[in-house]
Automatic annotation (TrEMBL):
Entry superkingdom: Eukaryota
Pfam families tied to this protein: 5-nucleotidase
Biological process annotations from GO: adenosine metabolic process; nucleotide metabolic process
Protein name, as recorded: Cytosolic 5'-nucleotidase 1B
Annotated PANTHER family: CYTOSOLIC 5'-NUCLEOTIDASE 1 FAMILY MEMBER, CYTOSOLIC 5'-NUCLEOTIDASE 1B
One cellular component term from this protein's GO annotations in UniProt: cytosol
Record GO terms (molecular function): 5'-nucleotidase activity; magnesium ion binding; nucleotide binding
Organism for this UniProt entry: Tinamus guttatus (White-throated tinamou)
């Protein structure tokens, strides 16, 4: 009995415990963002919820294939592993929550699929709401970022003040870094407010350039993803404190349609005023983002405009749409 208990205790101690929610950077991911549930979704829409649940139960030992957020989540887990190597008792790290409106009967297949992928996918917290929207639980789980394949739920979460994005699968099968989390952000209406984008849409580029130069030293207001960039920056500094700057497993990118000469200074000065660093800033002056993103190969790229999302998809980038700002009005019109 003594040997058996020792083995059991050792197994428990090796399994990482989730950080305390008040210290964690909580990323809530829907089941359709984490896994490929296209066929299951078709059954649900065409045959109804009962047939859907029955299908899931009959296939609960069939592992689900990765969805658009899968590589991103694995990269978050890798950062956690590196953090715990340097800081064994670190609580300020990523905590992944599976946030889904699936019924509890479907949970076994989700659990089995997560277990199949081993220690690279450690998800202990589940929220299965049985057909109801899970958005109301995001605040209770202290969510820092919510990723879903359902644009309506993402819109609901954005309106509730929670950083959220709709996930889109890339149209090409490409490889991503296993050792470095790469996150790419658009600027206006993503990291920053849509103040400047409003001028572009309503008054044109010439007025925009004039406005940005006049306000170069006035920081932009924050956008919905500013907080997540801040979270990434806090973790980066933990690696820098251990002399790991050159081996940091987090790298951030600003990929913006702005021109550097005419409107780039305000962006960089805004980040400086916030005390935030960005590892690479790419000012494209209106050029397509897809080719640059294909070179970066981020685990996720956040943008507020669907034509940038679609251009990124075509060239193999996993993109996440932020339904925020004036661009949404023009996309719907």
């Amino acid at each position: 009995w003594g040997d058996s208990k020792a083995l059991y205790d050792s197994l428990l101690s090796k399994r990482p415990r989730p950080p305390k929610p008040q210290h964690a950077i909580t990323v809530a991911v829907s089941s359709r963002a984490l896994f490929d549930l296209v066929e299951e979704r078709r059954i649900y829409e065409e045959q109804g919820v009962e047939k859907y649940v029955q299908y899931q139960q009959q296939n609960e030992n069939v592992t689900l294939k990765p969805g658009p957020a899968f590589c991103f989540v694995k990269a978050l887990e890798h950062v956690n592993t590196r953090l715990c190597e340097l800081y064994p008792n670190e609580e300020e790290r990523f905590d992944i929550v599976l946030m889904t409106n699936n019924h509890a009967q479907v949970g076994v297949r989700l659990i089995n699929s997560i277990k199949h992928y081993g220690k690279g996918l450690t998800i202990e917290r589940f929220c299965m709401t049985g057909g109801k929207s899970p958005v109301g639980y995001l605040t209770a789980y202290l969510t820092n970022l919510y990723l879903s394949a359902d644009s309506e739920k993402v819109q609901e979460a954005i309106e509730a003040g929670i950083a959220s994005a709709t996930m889109f699968t890339s149209n090409k099968d490409i490889s991503y870094s296993d050792t470095e989390l790469r996150v790419a952000f658009d600027g206006d209406a993503v990291l920053f407010s849509d103040e400047s984008e409003q001028i572009v849409k309503e008054q044109g580029l010439d007025r925009f350039f004039e406005h940005e130069q006049l306000n170069e030293n006035k920081p932009l207001a924050q956008g919905p993803l500013k907080g997540f960039l801040e979270d990434l920056g806090k973790l980066q500094k933990k690696f820098y404190a251990k002399n790991e700057r050159l081996n940091c497993p987090i790298r951030t990118f600003l990929v913006t349609a702005r021109s550097a000469a005419s409107s780039g200074a305000r962006v960089l000065k805004t980040l400086r005023s916030w005390g935030l660093e960005i590892d690479e800033a790419l000012f494209l002056a209106g050029a397509p983002k897809g080719p640059i993103l294909g070179k970066i190969r981020p685990h996720i790229f956040f943008d507020d405009q669907m034509f940038h999302i679609e251009g990124a998809q075509k060239l193999g980038t996993i993109a996440a749409h932020i339904p925020h700002g004036i661009a949404q009005k023009y996309q719907k019109s």
